[in-house]
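Lecture 7 notes: from sequence to structure.

We start with a single chain of 284 residues. Read the sequence below before looking at the structure.
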Amino acid sequence: MGSTVQDVCIPERFSYAIDQHLVFNYTGVQAWPLVLGIFGRPGDGKSFQVRTHLERRGVLPVSINAADLESDRAGMPGKLVLETYEDAGHRIDEGTPTVLVVDDFDTTVGEWAQSTTTVNHQQVLAQLMHLADSPTRAGDRSLRRVPVIITGNDLSKVYPPLRRPGRMRAFPWLPTTEERAHIVTGILGTMLSPSEISELLGELEEAPIAFFSDLLVEILAESSDAEVRRHAASLPRLILPRSAEREELERVLPTGRLEGAQVKALALHVWHQRMLATQSYVGE
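Now the structure, written as tokens:
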């Protein structure tokens, strides 16, 4: 039941935005912004689709996580941005198409009402703006131009001078009904027909794409219930690398599947349970 990079369905609008950004930056078109900002609601596949498409194109993503942009030492995250950008440039010089990717950018350096701007935030923003204005030079150092892709949930929280035209190209990602169906077909298409997928999406309009990926785990759990119950009493044998029980489960467990009606019923049940789980039970 596991999927591969080839199985993942990425809408053409999303993949083409990345292709455009790579082509214009690798050819050094100065009018094209260095930064592509992909923003949308949580769980709609921004980071996953970026990395999947880059892998298909043979592009190496050099990543900076939101946590990397914090440090006890003032100024270190800003230096990290420059060092990572420079390292990505060296990889391009060596013949490997490379892109700098920063996920959940707004989470760490966004301008939120409850947050306090720190020296680190200022240094990160200043460094990115400098690179956006001068992608091939930092002080007296020559740099290779490297495309930058950042993802997040709220573009309005990004420092306005960084997101202005010329520095960042904003790409809002809110998949259409057809695009959602295309993506979910890649996830559940072996168990549901196109009409069943459309019907399920119609009943779960608020569910993010990530919910349907997570649903695979629930399908696996439901379809393997008998096997898990049968082998749970022999756990010591399961940890042996060549035990008969382990070899049997390694063969059987990943193949779990359900019929279309069962998948739909399970999806609606899991969604209802999640709504209950995320409800606040603490009084105001």
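The chain has a mean pLDDT of 88. Keep this in mind for problem set 3.
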